[in-house]
# Entry
Amino acid sequence: VLRAANRYDFVTLATTPLAFVTGVVACTLLPLYPSLLTASLISTVAAGTGLAVTAWLAFCVVPVFGRPLSGFSELPGLIRRGSWLTMSNAFASLTTGIDELLIAGWCGPAALPPWAIAKRLWNTTHTFLAQHVEHLVPLLGSLRTAEGARVDRIAAAMHWYVVSLAGVVYSLMAWSGEAIVGLVAGHDVAPACRPAVLSFSLFGLGFA
# Structure
């Protein structure tokens, strides 16, 4: 709802502070109570809080969101148009974590932490780049009918901007990723993460 209303400021407001607080709480509680139950409780509370905050912000931006009209006649068309999205999300949910299982099975449990740390770096970088596109494309779409030629020029510049930004960011990741891992996870872990960091940097460049 917030993205459809082009209120990406509220999207950031709903996600960034909560993610920061969740990370601080996890870093504080997990050393004191190291168990899967603690991690699960932190994730559950964070998810519930995020849902409540997002729903409240959506109601503030689009009040009708809290009073939906009856639209059952539109459901068949929406289901047909959204079936591919549903299938892709279901496939992604079923395959999430398969790479970590394969890494642990082929290379042993000791290889999993370096892989997971490098993957988290890639996910953070990819999300940063993807949010640029999510912010810019809807704004361009709103100008399409009125200023088509200008939109085409801006869209071409936007593509080069994102590709150039991806090149810089992933190059920095390949260059400084090991140092970042050393600061966060310890210098004894950083050398083991070097191959995975370089691999994810090359993957990110190709993906961009």
Remarks:
- Residues 37 and 43 are 10 Å apart (CA to CA).
- DSSP finds seven helices and no strands in the chain.
